[in-house]
Sequence to fold (550 residues):
Amino acid sequence: MDNIVVADKQSEVATQSAWGNINLKAPSVVQVPVSPDKVATVTQRGQDLIITLKSGEKVTIGNFFAVDQAGVGSDMVFVGDDGTLWHAQYDAAAFTGFTFEDVASLDELVAGIGTAGSAMPTWAIAGLSLLGVGGAAAAANNGGSSSSSGGSDPDTSAPATPIDLLVSPDGLRLTGRGEAGTTVNIRDAAGNLIGSGTVGADGSFNVTLNAPQINSENLDVTLTDAAGNVSAPGTVTAPDATAPLAPTDLAINEQGNTLTGRAEPGSTVSVRGAGGVLLGTAVAGADGQFSITLQPPQIDGQALEISAADAAGNISPVASITAPDVDNPDTTAPEQPTDLALADGVTFTGRGEPGATVQVRDAAGNVIGTGVVGADGLFSLTLSPAQTNGEALDVRLVDAADNSSIPLEFTAPDITPPEAVTDILVGPGGTALSGRGEPGATVEVRDANGTVIGTGVVGANGTFLIDLNPAAQPGEQLSLVQTDPSGNASVATEYDVPLTTAPDSPSNLAINADGTTLTGTAPAGTRVEVHDANGTLIGSAIANADGSFS
Fold:
């Protein structure tokens, strides 16, 4: 493989490197001896460009995507098998790959992109394109002299992996040892360059990092020699100098022997009493929860201090809690809960005293839902069975001392539609219709055209009687829907008025002594009407299933 040619845009110096990884020290024009059709992929890792050939070979151009203060970046030129120069164009803001445009010479490319600070002399690049990559390599090796009979062999040996790597306690510097004169590059776990420097003549280096590394970050350190050869990475873990957050959600049971809460997973939680006496420790689990046995139990209202220490010895700020005082028990009941709401009859929410237990009971006193009020005073619990039909509920809060708030009555929303009406009968002449439905619901009767011809309210006994106007005709189809007070409507009941003959006349008629009640028998379901001598209606009733009426 021929050499890689690099023309530094800032120093105006063109050099060559053997095929392999190189590291750019400034924005440059990079000419690689590879035809575009031999490239499998080009990818960005941090500021580096990684070229993977179809043969499986890879070469990394370090700092290819870095730009100088003037915003000038690097350019890439590929050389075809026939010597054609292909300028690789790309979007520096969002790199997705290259598109290629042939150029007659590198002079053309340089003239198009300009340089940082001044125009690059034509000879600095044009000479390389005229010589060809192999000739350019020789020219760079020989310094342009014609007295040498042949160039020396290129340096293709990568530096050894850096050793004795150490990040300072404040996370701002990284030291180590490596090949003198090589460039040190330090990258974080995402491949971002976070520091660079040079190995001194004594083989040591001390590099400033651009951001503190103080939370056990894993860093990669590589060395790049003057020929662009890159060492295998050395790895180092930054110190953990970040303290955990203070423990939260602290609670002590009534017996004063168990303290629970949350802290950084894996941290050791300590509880101390008066004078700093250690009362108990525990390790927070993967979910952050911990439970500590206190010895001796704390039952006299003592002030306790809780802290968490991570594996590196960093200690959190102190959190405080007061132990229960069994000699002065808590007899104050919580206030009633507020802001109650019930969604879909299942999810019950509201506000209350933090830490209190929420209990929801139905009208029979059965507990149908419980929960705990969070530290923010909010609670959310699930009711089972769902309450969707205007049920009366009892809601109360119970604190850790078993004090219960005054029960609060809450009415569940009525989102359940009534059942369809039943037992429909149309009286003689089609002027009245009876049936059964949900007490309190309004029944609406419509004819085949959708016109309302009668309405009525279902009585407390579940029956209704509706006058129809105009009268329903034999064989006519009616539609009945009942709607409860909450606006929930039943499915429609379709009813065909039967083809009937006139009913038999009432019989067994009798009027009571005070003249206010008439009894007798008539065909079941028929409407019995009583008119005076002037034809005025003075009473009516529906004959029962046994034919009796009153």
Remarks:
- Residues 69 and 226 are 24 Å apart (CA to CA).
